[in-house]
Design a protein that fits this description.
The protein has about 325 residues and is α+β, with helices and mostly antiparallel strands. It contains 7 helices and 16 strands. The strands form 5 sheets. Strands 3, 4, 5, 9 and 12 form a 5-stranded mixed β-sheet that branches. Strands 6, 7, 8, 10 and 11 form a 5-stranded antiparallel β-sheet that branches. It is found in: Membrane.
Length: about 325
């Protein structure tokens, strides 16, 4: 399976030799990590910077002999008498707490320079790490959890044409703005020249030419792919469907109304999940003053009379009387 029912791509990028490319875009690399790794990096980054600058503050005090001085006016930093106190001063400096028990003096310029360096470096760390956490939290991935796809897709007649159909729905009252649906057929094939193309992708027209692919997703909708001469299912009958190996990947994307960020939900249907001669149960009911959506029937379907011949054969059979008349 190329894409799971939950929308995860079943692809692993192994044997990548030039892994330094990931560090070229370190921000995105960190955001893409799991939450556990993000929290670990967040804690490790701040802890390590505090420890490094604590050692530098301790080193300044040690080299200046502040541990042996009695007069506080002659030391570089008042209140540093051990590495622990230097570590606490490092935290106070970087996060601008300032309890008041430890303070820098003007007797040694190296301490002033170190204070400037830690203040600037701390601001950079804050901007980077807080930015990573903010983007991680505000990612619209969880919004896709409330976008539903039917467990099965069906093939049956609609308006006299063979159609491949599946259902999509949104569980939230806040809508997906400018929602658009796409579908791709994933199937390995061999070209006329003998080249084998693994997982070749073919677009399925789900309303691109008519604008029907742009959805007003307020209630569950049935997405329809008309099986015509341009469709890869044109020559496929019910018997052929059971013998084929393919996967239909469907992609629903749009902007989250609350945040304005782009959201994408994916699902897929393998050949065993495409049912011939079926139609979806209705889920929309008109009540007093409003429309009620019954999501208990969202995945349900029922059998209808459908020819088992391919759409091409059905089209030819319809043309036969005209040819005989001529």
């Amino acid at each position: 399976r190329f894409v799971t029912k939950k929308g995860h791509c079943n692809v692993r990028h192994g044997n990548v030799k030039d892994r330094l490319r990931y560090f070229a875009d370190l921000f995105t690399s960190i955001v893409d990590l799991k939450w556990s790794y993000n929290v670990a990096i967040f804690v490790a980054t701040y802890t390590s910077t505090w420890l490094i600058f604590a050692f530098l503050w301790w080193l300044v005090a040690f080299c200046r002999g502040d541990f042996e001085k009695v007069n506080s006016d002659e030391v570089c930093v008042i209140g540093i008498d051990s590495f622990t106190s230097a570590f606490l001063f490092s935290i106070e400096t970087q996060v601008t707490i300032g309890y008041g028990t430890r303070a820098i003096t003007d007797v040694c310029p190296e301490a002033i320079i170190l204070l400037l360096v830690q203040s600037i470096f701390g601001s950079i760390v804050d901007a980077f790490m807080v930015g990573c956490m903010f983007v991680k939290i505000s990612q619209p991935n969880k919004r896709a959890e409330t976008l539903m796809f039917s467990d099965k897709s069906v093939i049956s007649l609609r308006d006299g044409k063979m159609c491949l159909m599946f259902r999509v729905g949104d569980l939230r009252n806040s809508h997906i703005v400018e929602a658009q649906i796409r579908a791709k057929l994933i199937k390995s094939r061999q070209t006329q020249e003998g080249e084998f193309m693994a997982l070749d992708q073919t677009d399925l027209d789900v309303g691109y030419t008519t604008g029907a692919d742009r959805l007003f997703l307020v209630t569950p909708l049935i997405i329809c792919h008309v099986i015509d001469e341009k469709s890869p299912f044109w020559n496929m009958s019910e018997t052929d469907l059971k013998e084929e190996e393919f996967e239909i990947v469907v992609i629903l994307e749009g902007m989250v109304e609350a945040t304005g960020m782009t959201c994408q939900a994916r699902s897929s249907y393998v050949e065993d999940e495409v049912l011939w001669g079926q139609r979806f149960m209705p889920v929309l009911m008109l009540e007093k003053g409003f429309y009620d959506v019954n999501y208990s029937n969202f995945h349900d379907h029922f059998e209808v009379d459908t020819p088992d011949a391919s759409a091409k054969d059905q089209h030819l059979m319809k043309q036969l009387p005209l040819d005989d008349a001529r």
